[in-house]
Amino acid sequence: MTDDPSRPESVPSTPSTRPEAVSLDKAAVSGAPSTNQTQEGGSSPWADAQAAAARSAAAGNGGVPLNSSQFSSSFQPQVGAVQSDVAQKKLVAGLLGIFLGSLGVHKFYLGMNQPGVIMLVCTVAGYLLFTLLAIILIGFIFLLLPAAVGLVGLIEGILYLTKSDADFQREYIVGKKAWF
Fold first, then answer.
1. What is the pLDDT of the chain when averaged over all its residues?
2. What is this structure's pTM?
3. Which residues contact 10 (CB under 8 A, 6 or more apart)?
4. End-to-end CA distance of the chain
């Protein structure tokens, strides 16, 4: 064995290096809670809890322990992600309303199936009636139905794009406002 104190082999294992008693400060004797108490192994409960938290954080973070700012920021809600999701939904729903509004695709995208089905049925029925009745020369009247539904989709698409993200989320995503 060498006399190098940094090597574990050179440290004698005598009872004096390992505290066996519980040390208490004056506050603990008087009945008040203390933060300086040590357990039988020589470590305090607070140090043990911190070490356990660091081990669990290191295990969940690829072996890299988190410092206090990383630890607190990892549990904060990601507000920017929610806002960008609403902005993306607003943009996609607006463009679908403008380009495929007569089919009600923007309604299906926002999860409003009943208004989407109504728009789709009106458009398809209008085109079918136009095709079937075109022979009699009155079928052109039924072209007004898909045109009107397409106009509704166009107006809704423009409304979606001009609303703020908060208004769009409140009215169309959370509130499920069906028309205009």
1. 73
2. 0.47
3. 1, 2, 3, 4
4. 86
